[in-house]
Design goal:
Lipocalin; alpha+beta; 3 helices
Length: 176
């Protein structure tokens, strides 16, 4: 009986460890390449969320924006605002972002919850820094961001094709 409990506890611990690792992993999705060279100074400012893969964090949210600003020591502040249409009120969260790789590679991490950081990877960005394709560490998180509330069809097609080739389920994107 003790052996069975030990085995169950070990398996449960391994399962929890795998989940935590996948959530906190600072890796890039397989088959993806981070934007390089990447210029964070040009990325700073306000971005609108145009599309996203459904996720629990952003459930019932629309009109999401993110605003990035420098706070020193190669760290950046991110303020996320969104309207929760189920509760009928605006939400705001403030986090900290930092580079994982050298600061000319679009591989960052963001924290809204103290010491816990999540991958924030720039997969594609246009030459003028108006449109960006961003992911988490795996294939579960994907966003299309824009400086405006729309994205030209050409950019949209380019980003969708790239994401599909990497393995993202682009047909499941929510266009917000």
């Amino acid at each position: 009986m003790k052996k069975e409990r030990w085995l169950l506890a070990t398996l449960a611990g391994a399962g929890v460890g795998a989940i935590v690792y996948s959530l906190l992993s600072r890796d890039f999705p397989a088959g993806a390449v981070p934007v390089k060279p990447f210029d964070m100074n040009r990325y700073l400012g306000k971005w609108y969320e145009i599309a996203r893969l459904p996720n629990a964090i952003e459930k019932n949210l629309k009109n999401l924006t993110e605003e990035y600003s420098a706070i020193g020591d190669n760290r950046f502040k991110v303020v996320t605002k969104a309207y929760n249409f189920k509760k009928g009120k605006w939400k705001k969260a403030t986090g900290v972002m930092r580079f994982v790789q050298p600061d000319d590679v679009g591989m960052l991490e963001v924290s809204y919850f103290g010491p816990f950081y999540f991958s924030y990877n720039i997969l594609a960005i246009d030459a003028d820094y108006h449109y960006a394709l961003v992911s988490g560490s795996g294939l579960d998180y994907l966003w299309i961001l824009s400086r405006e509330m729309t994205v030209p069809d050409e950019i949209k097609s380019q980003f969708l094709s790239m994401a599909w080739k990497i393995g993202f389920k682009v047909e499941e994107l929510e266009w917000v």
